[in-house]
């Protein structure tokens, strides 16, 4: 109950931020960080709750961005064998929802294929998938415009009583939109994690052999996680396309996946708040350092902070905070500061030893 109250307090505080601090630059930075946080939440479902490291997660982000953009712009492409595919421009919200569905389908296909293997083989498959998607976006010029990029992507809209249809182009409107999608993604993952399916996923993460022996279907639950994770990443990509309003094949770059992994691990994988905390720190840090130190020093500080977190908080920031709060409430010292417990034999007095 306390966690639910704290969650809604944070949501209300974040929702009031554009009113309290209406700085367009900071709202823009927070909006961009929020999109990456949504993508990190999607990766955390795979990495944190099923134990599967996907290093090609940027592929789902890019698929969502391109699908939503292409459906809103419309396209006419020749598929070969005399087949011509013509798609008229769709309303932006329909395109956005279709992007989530299409990305989920890709997640299902990749999950059915990739989850038949484990370890390094799974990682290689996900990286290869992202690279293939990038090459398709780069070379299928008739559809994606290739390196010339898709431009003039319409923004998302909302209907408001008395105002009609409003284009969400202002910094505050974009911020609220990203916040709303982020809250929905967070609640979706939370409801899944606390369900029977989520408990099965955690069991697979802890001991897959034991979970299989008690009848948990491994591939089925991992595929469910892949579909939902891909759909959320596609939603983040769709938000990116309609807020930036220009996309190119660079959205498939490996650096986006690395950024998601950093946010998840530093915040605390396997925790709901981990990607949010890690995303806020590593999403805002480059902007806070801009103008203060040189770009080269920014990356050094960025990497140094990541190393320090992994050394002193190996499980992440959120688990470390939970542990410290538990120690404070119990009034006990942390394990590393406690006096070593004496073995029973060390408490026997010398005369008792002689008697024995």
UniProtKB/TrEMBL annotation:
Keyword Ribosomal protein: no
CDD domains, A to Z: TM_PBP1_LivM_like
Residues passing through the membrane, by range: 5-21, 27-47, 59-81, 93-113, 120-141, 175-197, 218-240, 246-265, 299-328
Key word S-adenosyl-L-methionine present: no
Keyword tags: Cell membrane, Membrane, Transmembrane, Transmembrane helix
Positions of the UniProt region annotated as Disordered: 336-356
Major site of localization recorded for this protein: membrane
Protein origin, superkingdom: Bacteria
Subcellular location field: Cell inner membrane
InterPro entries the record matches: ABC_transp_permease, LivM-like
Pfam family, one: BPD_transp_2
Topology class, membrane: Multi-pass membrane protein
PANTHER family cross-referenced by the UniProt entry: HIGH-AFFINITY BRANCHED-CHAIN AMINO ACID TRANSPORT SYSTEM PERMEASE (PTHR30482), HIGH-AFFINITY BRANCHED-CHAIN AMINO ACID TRANSPORT SYSTEM PERMEASE PROTEIN LIVM (PTHR30482:SF20)
Protein name, as recorded: Branched-chain amino acid ABC transporter permease
Natural source organism: Allohahella marinimesophila
Organism lineage: Bacteria, Pseudomonadati, Pseudomonadota, Gammaproteobacteria, Oceanospirillales
């Amino acid at each position: 109950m306390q966690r639910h109250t704290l969650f809604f307090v944070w949501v209300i505080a974040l929702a009031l931020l554009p009113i309290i601090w209406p700085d367009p630059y900071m709202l823009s930075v927070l909006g961009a960080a929020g999109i990456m946080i949504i993508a990190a939440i999607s990766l955390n479902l795979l990495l944190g709750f099923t134990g599967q490291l996907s290093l090609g997660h940027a592929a789902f982000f890019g698929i969502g961005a391109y699908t939503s953009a292409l459906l809103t712009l419309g396209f006419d492409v020749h598929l070969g064998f005399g087949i011509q595919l013509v798609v008229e421009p769709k309303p932006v919200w329909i395109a956005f929802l279709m992007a989530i569905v299409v990305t989920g389908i890709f997640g299902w296909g990749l999950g059915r294929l990739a989850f038949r293997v484990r370890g390094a083989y799974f990682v290689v498959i996900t990286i290869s998938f992202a690279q293939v998607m990038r090459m398709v976006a780069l070379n299928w010029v008739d559809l994606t415009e290739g390196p010339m990029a898709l431009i003039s992507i319409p923004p998302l809209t909302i209907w408001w009583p008395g105002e009609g249809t409003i284009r969400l182009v202002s910094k505050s409107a974009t911020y609220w939109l990203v916040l709303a999608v982020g809250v929905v993604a967070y609640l979706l993952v939370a409801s899944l994690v606390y369900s029977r399916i989520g408990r099965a996923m955690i069991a697979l993460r802890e001991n897959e052999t034991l979970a299989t022996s008690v009848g948990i279907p491994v591939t089925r639950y991992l595929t469910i996680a892949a579909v939902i994770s891909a759909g959320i990443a596609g939603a983040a990509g769709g938000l990116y396309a309609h807020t930036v309003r220009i996309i190119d094949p660079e959205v498939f770059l490996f650096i986006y996946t690395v950024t998601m992994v950093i946010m998840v691990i530093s915040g605390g994988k396997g925790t709901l708040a981990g990607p949010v905390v890690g995303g806020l720190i590593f999403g805002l840090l480059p902007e806070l350092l801009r103008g203060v130190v040189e770009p080269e020093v920014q990356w050094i500080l960025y990497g140094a902070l990541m190393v320090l977190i992994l050394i002193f908080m190996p499980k992440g920031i959120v688990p470390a905070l939970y542990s410290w709060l538990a120690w404070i409430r119990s009034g006990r010292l942390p394990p590393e500061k406690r006096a070593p417990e004496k073995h029973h034999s060390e408490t026997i007095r010398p005369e008792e030893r002689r008697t024995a």
